[in-house]
Amino acid sequence: MSGLSRRQFLTRTAALASLTGLDATFLAGRLAAAPALPDVPSTLTQTILQATKGNRKYRTLVGGPGEHFVPRVDVLRRKPDPARTTRRRSLLYLGHLSDMHIIDAQSPARIEPMIVQNHSTWAGAFRPQDTLTVHVAAATTKSFHDLRYSLVTGAPMGAAIVTGDSADMHSHLELRWYIDILDGLEITPNSGSRDRYEGVQAWSDAPWFYRPDNPEGGSFGEYGFPRLPNLLQQAISRPVKSPGLPVPWYAVYGNHDTLFFGTFDVSAQLRSLALGDQKAFTMEATASSALAGYGATNSALQRGVDALSVQSGSRSGFRQVTADPARHLLEQQEFMSEHFRTQTHPGPIGHGFTQHNLDSGETWWKADLNPWVRGLGLDTCNAVAGPDGAVPDDQFQWLKSELETAQKEKRVVLIFSHHNSFTLENQAVRPGSTEKLHNADELIDLLLKYPNVVAWLNGHTHLNQILAHTTKDGGFWEITTASCIDFPQQQQTVELVDNQDGTMSIFTMVVDHAGPAQPGSSGSFLDLAGQSRELSSNDWAETPLMRRGSPLDRNTELLLPAPFNLADISDLMLENQHLADRTRFELSAPEPR
Predict the structure, then answer these.
(1) CATH value at residue 361
(2) pTM for this model (two decimals)
(3) What distance, in Å, lies between the first and last C-alpha atoms of the chain?
(4) Cα four-point dihedral sign 58, 64, 68, 73
């Protein structure tokens, strides 16, 4: 870029200082020198892989070679100009998080014993790393904090998007932990008793779970899971302070933010369990109480009786725990309203949701991420039943109208949703409803009509995957990121780049959280995050290594035709925006302890 003149720079810096309250001389000194490409850990220099040998079947992790960006021309469909590397201009560099699955593992409303019935079917009911999700989230925000400048262009990060499944079991406490971690607040990831872990992983009469104090006597012990006698106490006793995301972040609904277990409506029994002092540790107790309300013959009267019996502790298969009112289960609109209880920096208040959303009940939104890139956040969750999704007709028509407007205004468009094109086939409706639900093919056909749609970012399937959706003249890229709960516990950065030759590139880079590949025993949130990653890589009921995706799904350069003449975005406009983004970093929270 040509660069700002000295007078333009000082004028712009003074304006930014006035807006932020920073000293103008201090800010000018910090912004005067363009930042060098950061020397920070990334998957360009190191990947994390399973060791070739382990204790019986259990395997530890090691650092592996880094992965360079792989060019993909599925949409461009011609050989790109090699000289593009000398002309790149960053239009937007953003972080993409999805499927954080923050878990209050001690909640009485969890249904861990269902893995006894079928580990594969009910895999999400219990994972060995359930108690460590806050630590992983904090380690993930540290990685985004470290990567706040692009390793491709040096541009500052401008925004971040969270594409759903933030709270694992529809819990208010889980939702608050997720928001507070991204905001950079200090939390202690404990509920119930202040000084004692009260959950199935600590109970000797529940040998079918991984019990880190003594894993012997169950499937996890037979598999070779390690003895980690301090893990549970370390997880709940120490405050976790993340740096928070360094940029404005936005959120959409996931199925776990909409339904219990991402699948069921919330019953009276579940609400009572969540607030009560009885936690199930057998499959029979769980099936007859927490899940009994889903039987077609269970009357409202019987559900009320069940709720009272749970609260009184009159059923077998339960142990007494400390009740906690913060564990109440969410109402659907509460997911939106809690996003207004947030820090003004980095913001925005509501994180995509607006007062209109609260007043109307609409759960989708639009936001300008900068003056030339617009994000459209969809709610693809089916609020009736089932983990997969669809797009209701009222939202579909809204999307069509917004795409028309964005095209007329020459805005590059990013689509955000939880579900991806493989999981938008859920046609469940309430009895008597005439609502039309649109599936993946209809959504893709709509998006392909608008060349300013360059990418669709989503999650849900907990794996890295990138698909090309094409027309004879171009198309867009669908970019699915993995999760924070299952291996490889990766998220991603996405950067939109103008090649100044009639093409764009979208650089995707998978991001490992900052926990070490070989965790220590210090009990720090980084070591605990590293331990979570190792445990997640040994999920024998799934295929964790497949979730990494192929090299074409990880670090890539995705080329496509420019949707309009990007020269309309001047170098001066871009540099002004980058200065504003860099100024925001000066207000960022300090490094974590």
Answers:
(1) 3.60.21.10
(2) 0.92
(3) 38
(4) negative
